[in-house]
Amino acid sequence: MDLWFKEIHNGSFGLLIKVRRSLYHGESQYQKLDIVETEDMGRMMLLDGLVMFTERDEFVYHEMIAHVPLTVHPNPGNVLVIGGGDGGTVREIARHPQVTRIDLVEIDELVVDKAKEFFPTVSCELDNPKVTVHYKDGIEFVKKSKDKYDVIIVDSTDPIGPAVGLFSHEFYQDCFNALQKDGILTAQTESPFFDVELIKKIYANLQQAFPLFRMYLAPVPTYPGGYWSFAFASKKYRPILDLNKERAETISRSTKFYNPQIHVSGFSLPNFVKKIFS
Ligand code: AG3
Q: Engineering a disulfide at 258: which of 7, 11, 63, 179 sits with its beta carbon 3.0 to 4.6 angstroms away?
């Protein structure tokens, strides 16, 4: 059988992944959820037909969104994850002994349920006693928190549907207020190759809320363009100068992508990306 999954980005560029079979299809009030078994990439989760992650390469994204802020913050006790109901980001955060509490705010209970059923290696820390899962809209949730978190990680979908607000100035301002006085935020910020206009807007919104912001990059083969951007926004700490190399080294004994050298080099931007900010 010749079955291929196709994701088309911005109408004219696509990604093809060979599929063996469908494992689950369902729909919540928010989105369609598919889980398929692929030929090479392990199982894959799709939301509204877009790749959220595959078992084979999810480590890059989840390690980079989590370990970069957590190795810069000197004592990240209290961490908030917005989105990320699959649990991949939580799994990485749970590797840090300094973290005593993780709030995960996922709008869609179906994502958590099916991640637990089909992706045990990704969702494995969701039942950790340090983790509290809130089935709520992240936008409303951050509005109600003040001076509470050391790190906020926005593990969202593309800015479509319910996720649009997770890229707005107002949301970033609410995150700023929800963070303690030396808090750090990281967020996934789409493809630096294809989403230039969108990225300009996202970083302008961030810049209005945070005194310090930088982009960093990592390769994610199953996302459009294979090259993905993340934002590091902070009230005080600088992403390279304030890196705790010892903790980064310790964490990298259990990671597959992240290490202190990758942390630093992730912030080196190619000229075509630098140009987005000039
Ligand atoms: N968050 C989704 C990143 C965006 C992917 N975009 C796309 N395929 N068009 C991933 C969630 C994993 N915890």
A: 63
